[in-house]
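User: quick one, fold this
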Amino acid sequence: MLTVILGFLYIAFITTIIGFGVRKVLAWLLLRSKLLFHSQSAARSNANGNQATAINSIMNNSLIQCIITGVVALTVYAEYISIFMNVGLICHLIMLAATALICVLCRKDLFSADDSLFRTILKNSGLISDNSDKDSKSVITNKSINSGKFTKTGTSINSGKYNKSAITNKSINSGKFTITGKSVNSGKFTITGTSINSGKFTKTVTSINSGKSIRTGASAKSPKSGYVRLVIYSAIILVIAFYTSRGAFHTDTNIYHAQMIRIYEDYGLIKGMGNLQLHYAYNSAYLAFCSLFSMHFILPQPLHVTTGFLEATLALFAAGRLLDWHKHAKHVADISMLGIVIYIIVNITGSMSPATDYGTMFLSLYLICAWLINAEVESESETEHKSDYVSNVKTKHKSEYEASGITGIQHCTDAAAQLSEVKTYEYALLSVLALFTVSCKLSAAIMVLLMFVPLIAYIRRKDYLTIIKCLILGLLVFLPFLIRNYLISGWLFYPFESIDIFNVAWKIPVDYLRVDSDQIKVWGRCLYDVSLIDMPITKWFTIWWHEQRTYTRVLFAADAFGTLLLVADFFIAKMKQNKHIIDLSTMCLIITLYLSALMWLFTAPFVRYGLAFLLMIPLIAIGINYDLASPMHIPGKSAIVNRYGAIIVIAICFAPYLAHYFGDDYKFINQYGTEPYYVVQKDYDDAATGNMSLGGNTVYYSEGGEVNSYYYCPNTCYKFMLDRSELIGDTIKDGFKAKETTE
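Assistant:
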């Protein structure tokens, strides 16, 4: 466990620094602004408080943004390196040099300034207080409420002059107190839409903190809340570190994941290595990331903590978001975080394995949640800017905006345009992440459709230069995956026969590809016989359904109910003309999830291949229904029935699935809890290994079943594949080809 935790911290530091540097460069190239990296300064200097609030909402996720950006950047870097050389000591030293350079050049933005990245992260996590708001005299003080007591006063609070109250940046414009259902500090101040200058005060408030300053946001958190969060976060890391330190490896890790990581470390790549074992042609960018932090070049045994690291990172991301539930006006993204929690519960026993399924699904889950957060901030921002226009431009407070030479209309329009640019920029980066996720596993291929959201936004603005920049960025991220596909298999997308454009010596024969592709499909359909590949869906679906466990069938029932709920909510939202409940970007995400689920069903319906999509569909349906069925939209008891009835139904559907895996997680503790891996992580499995000579080069093969030893390279699980292959040249680096292609 100790080495696992140290590995987590090391990867977190490197990816955060690299991610920060990359995001800074991308903001300069695409956004032409440093606003994302100076949220506190932007908040102080910007006259529009609503825009500052929206930007701060983005920065609440700054750590996860930097880490995921760092993961993508370092993985792409390792992929490019692997084309020319091994991913070893030199590759790692270059990475460390880049990290040090970013720390030096951006030291103030990272560490020293009050609005630096790490201080912002700690503030947003509630672990430290915001000293800049210590006095909070910009909120409501003795001066604005005279004696500090608010009994039955007959006029208004300073006749509406105090219109910049920092209570969620809502103004008290023209004497009206428009806070609805919000509590100030102690929860005693809960006026709901009562007019203060009407001369009547229906709910007498004895005191507003007795003249003391009122804190909101981070500054309102007591030290105790920070300690509670610290305990929760520490517990999450310890639990995941425990599961990452021991257990049994994923079957595919023993068959080819571990050996491919070793090939990255020793060779980078071997041309035509898919001929040595067809699994090696399943090119996955995630394994490049695993090899970068394996560090076998310096450690006595390789680390394999990357899956646990992603798991811990997303667990903290979800926990932080859920702990801030009360701060959010919309909760679709909050409820979608439960998808991360459920996925971790289901797969935590495999945390030790650097499995491509886990990496792909974790990145997909983050992509979905981050997309929903972006959509929520966007829709909330539109509402706030509209409110600004109505309450400030059309009232006597218009003069306060015009005092600086900017009309209220111009100010709101400019602020909205700037924020819209920031949000489109975030969608563009998430689209690049979707493309990267495809390079981890082709099962996520449909997620690239999300790119049309920022593309259409830039086309509407006629910002063709930014479109070109985004396309170049996407190409740079995806290009090494394509190059490696060509070099290791001779196909652009193995094992898909439809794109056949190369004719090289190391190309895997089409007959081998077809058998491999058919095996994946028939095993996913629970047929287990390649000769049944052409069985129509009307027949194989029944067989597949009967093979599913009861708890899995109930999970599919949750998707069916979620679909009905989404349809109902869509029509209700349309009738009530509430476009902010299901906005365009959220609708695009929902459509993409359904298309991904359909692709999963018709290709290889192993649940683990599409679990992220299957979980998110009903959870997003719950979130939309929860927001739509709020008292603001559906009054009375029907709101409670609509809101919690759907939650109960889907919770019942999830219960058997979760109960099964909770049982597995508990058995894991009993089975592996006493193993001596509290300091050093369990090593890769090993097996009896034979060898044979090819042109004076030693090639290994497993003699112990489907366990491919990490410690012998190159190695294959299947001797018959070795027997039907030969070297292209004199050395292993020259590559392998199939004997059938020899002239």
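User: anything notable?
Assistant: DSSP finds 24 helices and five strands in the chain.
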